[in-house]
Amino acid sequence: MKNFIAALLLAGAGTAALADSPNRVVMAVDRINEVRNLPAILAESLGYFKDEGLLVTLMEGRDEVPTETQLADGRVDASMAFYHHTIMSQVGGHPLVSVIDLGVSPALTLMVASRLKDQVKSMADLKGRKIFTGGANSGKTTTANWLAAHAGMGVNDFTHLPLMDRDKMAAALTSGEADAIVAHEPDASYYANSGVAVAIADITTPDGTRKSLGSLFPTTSVYMTEDYVKTHPEQVQHLVNALVKTLKYIGSHKAAEIFAVLPKEIGGKDPKTYQEDLARDLPMFFTDGVMPEADARMEFKIFTEFQPKYANTKFEPTYTNQFVKKAD
Question: If DSSP codes are grouped into helix, strand and coil, which group holds residue 79?
Answer without folding.
Answer: strand
